[in-house]
Structure formats: structure tokens, C-alpha cells
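Ticket #4471: structure export looks truncated?
Reporter: QA, pipeline team
Priority: medium

Steps to reproduce: submit the single chain below to the structure queue and open the exported record.
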Amino acid sequence: MNHRGIAFLTILLVLSFSSTPAGALWHQGGNLICDEVSTQRYIQSAPDGAGNIYLVWEDYRSGSGPDIYAQMIDNRGNELWTSGGIAIATGTPNQWEPLITGDGAGGAIIVWEDFETGPVYGIKAQKIDADGTPQWTAGGVTLLSGSSGYTDLKLISDLTGGVIVAWYSSVSGNYDIYAQRADSDGTVMWGASGTSPCTETSIQQQPELCPDGTGGAIIAWMDSRNGNLDVYARRIGPSGSIYWTSNGVPICTQTASQSVNSVVGDGGGGAIIIWQDLRNGTSDIFAQRVSSGGVAQWSSNGLPVCLASGNQNNPGGVSDGSGGAVIAWSDDRTTNTDIYAQRIDPDGTGLWTSDGVAVCTERHMQTGPKLIISENGNIIIGWTDCRLIEYTHYAQMLDLSGSAHWATNGVHAGHTTYRTSAFDMSPDGEGGVIFSWDSYYSSTYDLMAQRVERNGYWGYPSPVIADIRDIPGDQGGSVDLAWYASRLDPWPAMAISHYTVWRAISHPDAILLASRGATIIESISEIAPQKDRDFSAEELSRSTSLPSPPDIIRSEMAGSTTIFWKMISMIDAYYLDSYSEVAATLFDSTSASDENHYFQVIAHSGVPSEFWISETDSGYSVDNLAPVVPLGLAGEQSYSPEGIVLTWDPNTETDLSGYRIYRGLTDDFEPGPGNLVASIPDTVYMDDGWSWEDEWFYKLAAVDIHGNESGYALLAPSGITGEDIPDAPLATFLAQNYPNPFNPTTTIRFGLKKAGHVSLRVYDAAGRLVREMIDREMPAGDHAEPWDGLADDGSVAASGMYFYRLVTSSFAETRKMVMLR
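Actual output as written to the record:
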């Protein structure tokens, strides 16, 4: 039987395979990214825009000084390049402290400090594609080469495929701010030594910058020209032109010191500048918005973000996507150092609780917050946390109203055993975040990474398809789909309520189903949990009177391709390690079509928005059962028309296609295309080429719709019924020539009821006489006259259709034949 419907009848099996999934995926405590000899540290990350993450670090494996290495991982924890990473910059003596940003086209740009021979300090950059292949000059483009030291290197994308870096250096005898840009081709745009937005005497340091939206940047820095540290800013255009007040627009010149910490684009060509400020005797958080023309938009010297008691330090900021910013900082208003956050709108108004919402107030110390905006518009804040004594990393997701979406005081995103130092984080492409950090173990640093997915769980607790197998001994139409449960299914989590199984369908099939009333969903969260349905899989298995569940269709993007999925079953979770489901297929694999079917399994919690999709896997079904050998094969000779009539009993298989008849000269002949007489759906066949003299053997097989052929029923000459050919036929006849078509000889058989004059002639298609075969008296009986394809004049007849005509005193008949040269 060939099943083509949707099977909602669930078969739940406890499988015997191991409950530990195969493959990379994520591991509790993080995945090891690199543990080459010696130390790897200062890891930095950048997203590629498709859910993968670039990682770059300082690597000491060579033993001669640090080099720059990189790796790419996907959001399932798989390393996409060579294990241990690929070399970006190596050489004598040192390359260190790399930074990275995406290029906006799926690649990344890496910038590092380079200590060349001489010695000469330099800054270099390299663009790589998704395969890790360098796109710029071998060894990197030189952004700066000089004998003076520089420090505090920062970089951003210029949003046009290039990169902008900033630093401060003592080239002119005191520290000044410098910047350099390389365009998408690696061309250095702002001179060999970069350009300086400020050459004021005294000290300028700690630059922070953001894109200006035109290929340039807005840069802010700390400035001591007034005797204490203030905040100044300027804008640099894409060609290196410097705008706003000479040597910088004063952002904050309040007494005491200000330390700039973050610059966030406002989406309109301006920026929100964030700093910690000592004007009130303790460290507070202030901000100012500056327009694209360099005009401050808020109160002189900025607006307070937080004036709580104690000190607020190390603020970080990110755009809120609406012209404002979300700011997070370390806060010791209580006995511990905690993490707080605030959102400010384009007017500088705080939108959350006064002095910020508490992100984490766990015991001990939390410091160094970093922020990203996720694909769904929420803000993810990560920080270094020592609640477990050793430093590790935690994260929290806030929506734009300031409400936390993950566990109180954050979810753990790092290792619990080894000491860690700096960390970085990038969006995972699906609403979550991927952390990366260096971990100190056994006197060296290794590199780790961990994902916190959109619901706040580490890794990605999806089911894992273990196998999609054809079911042996069936008529096809279904496969056995086995999967490992989500790790949130078994005890002690027991957080999974049900699973849904999906099969990929074509776009035309999706349109057809939609026209027939299928439900098209935009989000998987629209699927109600199993226990809320009007009927369950168990009820379906007990009753045939229940209505069929509606078809449910969804789509997803795979790169630039839209894939359509149809839900084919839903089953309850039973806190097991693994499950199996008999899943219907649309067709079986045959020699004519060996395409696979593609499946996904989705784990659902009791919360509609919490679901986890397995990676896609494929398999196919096969009709493994051939029909039985046909029974009752018999043959009886026929004289009018002349030949043998073969008959047999019909097979009863529901997927039967028909029968094949083969003919040979011995009982052990091998059936094949060369001796195939006919393929027919019926149980009767007339072979008009048969004769007693040939003593042919027949073999008969049944065939199903997938090409499976049964064994053979045999009919020997001794089993053919009927009398011997009589001396004279009961009536004069003209038989079909054999073979037909023919090349070059055929035989024309005829029978005479009584003796008499006989004329047998061959004509061409135009009616012209080609050959007179017989023109004489002949006795009664059966006769056979060969024609060698020659005309009366001895010439060779051409390919084509011919007619042969038999005429006696009381009979005349014409038949056609075909010659193929």
C-alpha cells in the first residue's frame, strides 16, 4: 500500500540508542574553540549577519611571539574552519590585540597592532570572506606605520564595506586623537599617518566612535585642555574632511573629571555620547546627544542617566532602534557592585525606573557590562560576574519597556570552574547571543564560546534527529523518524509539552493546500500546545470518527531561498530521552526518482513562544515488497486469429501496476528486456507469433507501481492445451507477418481451406507492385512464405510501410508491414 496522506496517527517508541546526541552543538560550560599549545587570549567576535560568528584572537602557539588567528562558528556550535583556527597574521616579531567588525556583506575586517622590524609600531587590517580567505593585500593593509607608540585602538564599520579605527598617540609630544579609514577595497583613505580631529595642547585620550551614516565617523574623547578631563567630539567625513568646531565641540566641560565610555549613533547622522562624571563627588552616568552638524541637543554639559548613591562606572550603550539608546553600567549603590540599565529617548528622557532598572543584584561583584540589540529588537546585556567566586559571565534580556525576559539576576553564559578574563558577545541571528572568552587553565589561556538562545537557555535545547530510516518489509509511503529529545524534556527539567514533526513541501503544493483551506502560520508560536487541542494523538488512534486536523503550513528562509513546511504530526512529550515517529512520505525512492524528503522536529514548551527547531535531516521511503508470483498461468492455441492465448489469475496487491510476459527457448532462460513480449495491466494476452514448431517457453511476473517485480510463473510447451494443427484450416486466413517491423527478412503465413490458385503480392505505400511472391496453384493447409526485402527486379526495397495481399477464388485480404533498414 502506498500512503500519500498525512499521518496524524502517532506511534511512540522508546528507542534503544544512546541519549547523548552526536555532533557538535553546545555543551554546558561552553565549547572549546582553541586549545593549541601556549596561550590564546583577547578573543573578539563579530556576526556575519546570517547567524554565524567570526572569532579572532591573539595566539602564542608559534613560540616566537603572538600572532593573529581566526575561526568561524555557527549558532549550533560547529566550527566552520580548520580546527584551531586559521592564521590571519604571523611573522616576526609580534601581532597582538586584534579587533574585528563585520563588513556588512557576510565577511569581516580584522585590525591589529603590529610590531614590525625596525622596530616600528604599526596598525594593520585584513578583510576575510566567509571561508576565511583574505580579500586585501597579503599580510594585511598598513593603516599606520610609525616609530611612536599608540594605544587604546578602537574600530567600527564605516557601513560601506570598510573600516574606521581610532587611537591616541604621542606623535606631537603630547597625546592626541587620530583616526584612519580603509574603504571596502582596502584603500587607505586618510593619509599614511591618519588624520587627527584634535591637536590641542595637553592630553586627548580614550577615543570612542560610531558611524555617521555616510561612511565617516563621530569621535568623542577625554580632553585635559581645561585642567581636568572633559569630553569633546568631532565628525570626520568619508574622505577625511573634519567637521564641527576646530579641535572639537565641547560635550561636557563641567568641573571635576569626565571619562567618555560609549558613543551610539542616533540613526539621523548624530550621536549619543555617554560618560561617567565626577561633578557630584561620586561617579555618575551622563549623556549628551549631538546632531550631525555638531550641535548639542540636550542641556549644557549633558543630562544625568543615573545619580544614585555610590558610584556608577563603565557605562556601555547601544542604539534602541528609535533614535535613543539603552545604557548599562556597574553600580555600587548597595554593598555589592551590581548591573543597572536605563533607556533614554531622543529627547534625553529616561523611559525606565529613575536611576535605572536593576539588571543583576546578585551577591559579590558584577562589572563591565556590554550590550547588543538582538534581531527581535530586545536588548541583551552581558557582564563579568563573580557570584561563583571565580569570574564568569552572565546575561539578561530586556525588552524596550525595561522588563527582564530571562531568569532573575541573569542566566549563566560561561564556565564555572576556570578563571576567565575578557569576554565579547555577538547576536546569534535568532534573537539570542553568543559569548566568547579566554579561560585560564593549567597556566595557559584557551578560548571558549557559549550560546544563550532567545529564551535564556544555554546552547540550543532543540531535539536532534538521529535517523530517518526506510521501514523494511513495507509497501513504502513512510519512514521511521527517530530523534533525541530536547534536553529540557527529561527529568529534572520536564519543560517540553509536545513535539511537532514537519516535512518540506514545494511552493506549488503550499499554494494548492492554501487554496484548500490550509492554515498558514507566520510564527510557530501560533501552534497551541498539544493538551489544549480539541483532540489528541491518543484520541485519534482510538477513533476513526474524529475530524481530520487542518493542514498547517509555515515558511522559513534558508539564505535567499524560501522553504515551505507542512506539519504532519504532533505528539505529547513524556519526559523521555528519545522518540520515534512513523512519518508519511509523498513518494517512494525508485530508479526514476531518488529524491529525499526533508524533515524537522520542533520541541515546544507550555509557553507558545518557547520552541526549538531541530536541524533539517533527510531520508526516503522504499516499497520493499514485490508482488507474489501470479497463479494459474495457462496457454491455449487459437486458430482464428492464430496464436496462443495466455491467461492467469489476477493478483490482489493494492499497489499492483500490471504484468510482464517473457518468451524463451528453454525453461531456464533469463527474463530481460531482450525477450520481453508484453507489459500489460490485464490477465489475458494473445501472442499471435506463437507456433507449435517453435516450442517456446513463457515466464510471467507481476509488477507494482514502484517497479518491484515478482518471481516468475513458467509455462512450458507441454503445458499448452489444444489439438495439433489440422491438415487444413477450418477457414482460409492471412496472418500477420513475423517479425514486424523487420530487417531484412520476414515470413508471411496463410492457410487455405481448399486447394486452388493463389496470388500473394507485396505493394508499396503508393500502391505500386513491388514483388509478386506467389502466383500458382497451391494445396490446402498452412503455408509460410519468406520475403527477403527484394523487389522483382532484384533491387533492395527501401525502409517504409508495405502492404501484402492474398487472393484466392473465394478470399481476399490485405495486411500491412513495416521494413526498417
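Status: closed, not a bug. The export was complete when the record was re-opened. Leaving a note from the reviewer for reference: Residues 507-515 form the longest helix (9 residues).
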